[in-house]
Write a structure and sequence with these properties.
The structure holds 2 protein chains of 2 kinds. By secondary structure, chain A is an alpha/beta fold. Chain A contains 8 helices and 10 strands. Chain A starts with 12 loop residues before the first strand and ends in a 16-residue tail after the last helix. Chain B has a two-stranded antiparallel ribbon with strand order 1-2. A two-stranded antiparallel sheet of chain B has the order 3-4. Classes of the chains: A alpha/beta, B mainly alpha.
Chain lengths: ~280, ~300
């Protein structure tokens, strides 16, 4: 399945006028997690969502995943409703905690989405082999999750997310619990994976360097109420050409500064292209 | 598998050691304690240490070997106690199995339906505060009007029902806890994969609950033995350990070690029942990898 299997020009993800209000529970006031969100993500594009706590970035991701429904507005994934996309398994998802089932081997964990779709055993085994090779864990197919390090568990979670060859990957701070070195290595691996599979990625993170290193565009959000304040295009050239040396480029630092300024809420900055909030 | 067996043997060894220590404490207290016990202001805090109240461990063990009653052809106490244990064990087993099934069904209902949980859980908890001696006549009375599979209600069935009444509670609570134990990330994954309720139940919630279910079944086994013994006494059912305890207690003044033999039998039955749950552990143990991870439980 290639990412081109849709009407050309149709965005992978399209949010229009999305608002999400969580109702008051037990006496507390209702919370406006997201308001007035308009966002398009192109097929194959890597977009990061960044912002302080309470800015609604995780909520936005969950709306795309159909794990929440918007109070107003529409969420379209590959031209379908978010719910239909979820039922059709058009996306894979990975959370901050790997969420592996401890009683299953690594292979069985990766096969889980395929089992749920009742894929035949031989086909499942073969696909698991492909994915294990892709994330470099072929030697650990028969291990249990508790025998793996945090980084390896996240790799299993990512392999599992890719099981159905989705055109969209949704990731909620998947490297948040890892140490810095492992984190940088995983970022490089994710970059390679996303290039090879050609899937679009929506990536929630707290880390500015991570957002810049991985993305084509960084969506900056702020809280109370949660909204998109700015979208910063990362001028680092094609993602396929980025490597460890990119982290020490002048352009990298400039982009990190641009995102940081956007987070602080400074409207003017010489390095940005000045396009402000984008709608593609 | 080997490591689990090793661990089982080790904890069994510690269990035997604990029993030996108990015997040492018993004899030790008898050696230093006063025949009147120890009282403060008329309240006896420590028991009497004389041979009538606290027979020597050796005396109790010897009593197992001697005949139950002075009559001709009377079996030894050991044989009588073992027979009674077998009688009560089968009833307790039926109670445990029935209680476990009821507990699991309740847990499934309470996890699935919020209203069921809010409605049932308080009653499940309160049910355990009702004294068994009050329930026994009710169960016997209802049973008298029922027929099971064409046969009339047997007295042992009342005992089994009461035994199950004590057994279902830990299973219901433990299983519910287990069904609720999956993390948000795991549940989110199932939802994202468009898994149905049944798929989520079979592939996520049930395996996750095994770690909580097995200790609950162990508690239920001990509770079912207690329930069976108390119910036997309350319903007047002959042949079991409950009846035996009452009979032997009547000889307490003339034959001090005799009641203690029945008590040891009851305790052994409880230990046996709880230990048998270990068999369940062996079959379902692969779902509790946390035990393998930590190397001991």
């Amino acid at each position: 399945m290639t990412p081109g299997e849709q009407r050309p020009g149709e965005p992978a993800v399209a949010l229009r006028g999305v608002e999400k209000v969580f109702d008051a529970a037990g006496g507390s006031e209702s919370v406006t997690a997201l308001t007035d969100v308009d966002l398009d993500i192109a097929p194959g594009e890597f977009v990061s969502l960044i912002g302080p706590s309470g800015c609604g970035k995780s909520t936005l991701l969950r709306l795309v995943a159909d794990l929440e429904t918007p109070t107003t507005g529409t969420v379209q994934v590959f031209g379908k409703s978010a719910r239909q996309a979820r039922l059709d398994q058009d996306y894979g998802i990975a959370f901050q905690s790997a969420g592996l089932l401890p009683w299953r081997t690594v292979r069985a964990n990766i096969e889980l989405p395929l089992e749920l779709r009742r894929v035949a055993k031989a086909r499942r085994w073969q696909r698991a082999d492909e994915l294990l090779t892709m994330v470099g864990l072929s030697d650990f197919a028969a291990s249990r999750p508790h025998q793996l390090s945090g980084g390896m568990q996240q790799r299993v979670a990512i392999a599992r997310a890719l099981a159905e060859q989705p055109r969209l990957l949704l990731m909620d701070e998947p490297f948040g619990a890892l140490d810095e070195m492992t984190r940088e290595r995983m970022q490089g691996e994710l970059l390679g994976l996303s290039q090879r599979t050609g899937c679009a990625v929506v990536f929630v993170t707290h880390s500015i360097p991570e957002a810049v290193y991985l993305s084509d565009r960084v969506v900056v959000m702020s809280p109370r109420p949660g909204r998109i304040t700015e979208i910063v295009p990362v001028g680092l050239g094609e993602r396929g050409r980025r490597d460890e040396d990119t982290r020490e480029d002048a352009a990298f630092f400039a982009a990190v500064t641009a995102v940081r300024e956007a987070l602080r809420g400074h409207p003017d900055h010489a390095i940005r292209t000045g396009r402000g909030v984008e709608k593609r | 598998m080997n490591r689990r067996l090793e661990r089982g043997l080790r904890s069994g060894g510690y269990g035997v050691l604990a029993l030996v220590l108990l015997g040492v404490v018993w004899e030790g207290y008898k050696a230093v304690g006063s025949p009147d016990g120890f009282s403060i202001g008329g309240v006896r805090l420590l028991p009497r240490a004389d041979d009538a109240s606290m027979p020597h461990v050796s005396q109790i063990l010897q009593r197992f070997g001697r005949p139950e009653v002075a009559a001709e052809g009377s079996p030894t106490v050991l044989v009588a106690v073992l027979r009674a244990m077998w009688f009560s064990f089968r009833i307790a087993l039926a109670g445990w199995a029935g209680g476990a099934v009821v507990g699991m069904v309740l847990a499934l209902l309470m996890q699935r339906f919020r209203t069921a949980r809010d409605a049932l859980l308080p009653y499940v908890v309160v049910s355990q505060t009702v004294p068994l001696v009050a329930i026994a006549p009710v169960v016997v009375g209802w049973g008298g009007n029922l027929a099971v599979l064409g046969r009339p209600w047997q007295p042992w069935m009342s005992v089994a029902v009461i035994s199950g009444y004590l057994a279902f509670f830990p299973v219901a609570v433990g299983m519910l806890r287990g069904l609720d134990s999956p993390t948000a990330a795991q549940l989110g994954l199932m939802h994202a994969c468009a898994a149905s309720y049944w798929q989520t139940l079979v592939r996520l919630r049930l395996p996750a609950s095994v770690g909580h279910l097995i200790p609950a079944l162990r508690l239920a086994a001990a509770a079912s033995v207690v329930g069976a013994i108390v119910a036997e006494i309350s319903t007047g059912t002959r042949g079991g350990v409950g009846r035996l305890i009452i009979e032997y207690a009547q000889s307490a003044t003339g034959d001090p070690p005799k009641p203690w033999t029945a008590l040891l039998g009851a305790a052994a039955l409880g230990l046996l029942a709880a230990g048998l749950v270990g068999l369940v552990d062996l079959t379902l143990g692969r779902f509790v990898p946390a035990a393998a991870a930590k190397g001991a439980r």
